[in-house]
């Protein structure tokens, strides 16, 4: 019903365009008005009222002259088709615009941008890229929009060098990202993606250079510090790795949990367990979280026994109720209980296990996407740095 209503609105626009187009044609060639226009127009109407929108579109494309007065109607039709997912039809409408004379340069560029958007939507990224690269060169008006689309294409294709080069050409003041991230943060993520690949291939020198670039783009990039730590750890440079990990809580406290295992490994390899415990407790004071509670409890268990770990967790549970820490408390008491008490604890653990398994650990604060892995680029809304650990009773 909504589609029919939209078509009717478009029909009114097209009718107006048809009327003016007819007048302008009459002005230009008094008695040579092409009969095909009228024929296609009435055909389109017939298709519309018989609820055959596809045929109606074909008829309207043929019926409506392309000129400055009717351009908006053509663009509205094309964009509506793209939004409805009928990209082939949208491409047809926009290609029809570009093939016709009568548009000025700015209008041609606008039609070209819409056609590029159709190609992006249909996955024809090479064709979209070619149109957008040309627009960047020739159209100051559509340069920024074209660069934004190019960045998205390069991002989808993992072509990070090209993504950075396109982002470098953007106007910082005009840039508005979906997630609220700055242009510097965006470029920093691109450089981190490169570094991540380098680290995976053990190309340490390249990784170092990309991470330095990432920090140049965004000095507060917790991701860059985490990757730097991984790079140093991979080369056995534990003190250097720690210096990067120590920066993370001030850069973005939400991500300090991602470096906890590395922090423990570094202190352990350096043979400094007391310094580790002191650091973890200080961190817990400043940035309370359940993962930190569990980590400190694990250290207490190693150094002392199950009871010391359980007492620590029980104390923290009074301050911050949490399903995950409660579960660990039950686990710690299980081996030390027997008879009826043990059976009840086992039952409680089974129930809590089920609740924990059903709860995701991460959530995008932009679109609400949830999962159990950290994605720097949200798979739901394609925003950078919006997926964070979930807090509260069921999370951190
Ligand atoms: Zn999202």
Automatic annotation (TrEMBL):
Belongs to the LapB family. NCBIfam families: PRK11788.1-5. The gene is lapB. It is found in: Cell inner membrane. This is Lipopolysaccharide assembly protein B. Residues 363-389 form the LapB rubredoxin metal binding domain. Residues 22-396 are cytoplasmic. The lineage of its organism: Bacteria, Pseudomonadati, Pseudomonadota, Gammaproteobacteria, Cellvibrionales. Modulates cellular lipopolysaccharide (LPS) levels by regulating LpxC, which is involved in lipid A biosynthesis. May act by modulating the proteolytic activity of FtsH towards LpxC. May also coordinate assembly of proteins involved in LPS synthesis at the plasma membrane. Keywords: Cell inner membrane, Cell membrane, Iron, Membrane, Metal-binding, Repeat, TPR repeat, Transmembrane, Transmembrane helix. Fe cation binds at residues 364, 367, 378, 381. It is a single-pass membrane protein. It comes from the Bacteria. Its main location: membrane. The chain crosses the membrane at residues 6-25. SUPFAM superfamilies: TPR-like (SSF48452). InterPro entries: CellSynth/LPSAsmb/PSIAsmb (IPR051012), LapB (IPR030865), Rubredoxin_2 (IPR041166), TPR-like_helical_dom_sf (IPR011990), TPR_rpt (IPR019734).
């Amino acid at each position: 019903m909504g589609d029919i209503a939209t078509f009717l609105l478009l029909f009114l626009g097209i009718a107006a365009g048809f009327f003016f187009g007819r007048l302008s044609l009459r002005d230009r060639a008094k008695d040579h008005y092409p009969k095909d226009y009228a024929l296609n127009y009435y055909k389109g109407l017939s298709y519309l009222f018989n609820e055959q929108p596809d045929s109606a579109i074909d008829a309207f494309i043929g019926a409506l002259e392309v000129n400055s007065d009717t351009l908006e109607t053509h663009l509205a039709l094309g964009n509506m088709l793209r939004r409805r997912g009928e990209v082939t039809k949208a491409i047809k409408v926009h290609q029809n615009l570009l093939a016709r004379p009568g548009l000025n340069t700015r209008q041609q560029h606008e039609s070209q941008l819409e056609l590029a958007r159709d190609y992006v939507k249909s996955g024809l990224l090479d064709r979209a890229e070619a149109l957008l690269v040309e627009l960047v060169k020739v159209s100051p008006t559509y340069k920024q929009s074209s660069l934004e689309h190019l960045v998205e294409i390069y991002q989808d294709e993992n072509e990070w060098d090209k993504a950075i080069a396109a982002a470098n050409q953007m106007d910082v003041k005009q840039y508005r990202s979906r997630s609220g991230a700055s242009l510097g943060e965006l470029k920093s993520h691109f450089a981190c993606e490169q570094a991540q690949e380098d680290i995976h291939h053990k190309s340490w020198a390249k990784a170092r250079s990309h991470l330095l670039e990432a920090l140049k783009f965004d000095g507060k990039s917790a991701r860059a510090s985490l990757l730097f730590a991984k790079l140093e750890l991979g080369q056995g440079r534990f003190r250097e790795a720690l210096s990067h990990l120590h920066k993370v809580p001030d850069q973005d406290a939400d991500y300090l949990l991602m470096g906890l295992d590395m922090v423990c490994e570094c202190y352990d390899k350096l043979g400094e367990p007391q310094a580790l415990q002191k650091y973890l407790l200080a961190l817990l004071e400043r940035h309370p979280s359940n993962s930190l509670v569990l980590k400190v409890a694990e250290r207490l268990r190693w150094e002392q026994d199950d009871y010391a770990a359980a007492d620590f967790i029980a104390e923290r549970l009074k301050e911050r109720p949490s399903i995950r820490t409660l579960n660990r408390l039950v686990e710690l008491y299980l081996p030390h209980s027997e008879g009826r008490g043990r059976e009840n604890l086992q039952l409680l653990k089974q129930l809590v296990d089920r609740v924990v398994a059903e709860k995701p650990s991460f959530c995008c604060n932009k679109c609400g996407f949830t999962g159990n892995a950290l994605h720097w680029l949200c798979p739901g809304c394609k925003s950078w740095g919006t997926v964070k650990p979930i807090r509260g009773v069921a999370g951190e």
